[in-house]
Amino acid sequence: MIVATSDRIEKRLTLRAPRARVWSALADAREFGKWFGVELSGPFTAGARLTGKVTTPGYEHLPFDITVDRIEPERVIAFRWHPGMPDPAVDYTKEPTTLIVFELADAPGGTLLTLVESGFDQLPPGRRQSAFRDNDEGWTSQVKNIEEYVARNS
């Protein structure tokens, strides 16, 4: 199921794996990097800033920079970033970030993953629409990636 407004992207899917397995794929930085296509500088801990590089073919020139917002083991992990397709020549540090929340719940046959990215309405008007479009397309791919990753590694 996909829900979209101008300010938030929401995607839900049931993964055929126990919550602990899905949590590991989300909260372990190495596992996260495998399905997301990124190498990260360290572990996910609340308040930590992690940098890295994208490893997805064709996008290796892009940096990756997030700040972990909160962690509630086996329930929620959230982080902030500057959305959209980044231009390495642009300094986004003065722009607002969006909030990405991965939430887990038990579901018949597995684990319900709800992903929400919100805060697009705070972005500069010239970037708002393209950042939303880029991230909506990106999350469509990423939920497929985590589904395949968890199925292969359960």
Structure characterization notes:
The chain is an alpha+beta fold and 154 residues long. It is 29% helix and 36% strand. The chain has one domain (2-152): Alpha-D-Glucose-1,6-Bisphosphate, Chain A, domain 4. It is built from three helices and eight strands; from the N terminus they run E-E-H-H-E-E-E-E-E-E-H. An eight-stranded antiparallel beta sheet has the order 1-2-8-7-6-5-4-3. Strand 1 and strand 2 (8-15) form a beta hairpin. The two termini are 23 Å apart. The mean pLDDT is 93.
Compute the separation of the termini in Å.
23 Å
Number of helical elements: 3
Mean pLDDT: 93
CATH homologous superfamily grouping:
START domain
Q: What can be said about the biggest beta sheet?
A: 8 strands, antiparallel
From the spread of the alpha carbons, the general shape counts as globular
Overall domain count: 1
- Helix and strand content put the structural class at alpha+beta
Give the fraction of residues assigned to helices: 25-40%
Q: What spatial order of strands do you see in the largest sheet? A: 1-2-8-7-6-5-4-3
From the alpha-carbon coordinates, what is the Rg to the nearest angstrom?
15 Å
Runs with pLDDT <50, length 5+? none
CATH architecture: 2-Layer Sandwich
Return the CATH topology.
Alpha-D-Glucose-1,6-Bisphosphate, Chain A, domain 4
Per DSSP E runs of 2 or more residues, the count of β-strands stands at 8
Q: Given this structure, which CATH class is correct?
A: Alpha Beta
Order of helices and strands: EEHHEEEEEEH
Tell me the fraction of residues in β-strands, as a range: 35-45%
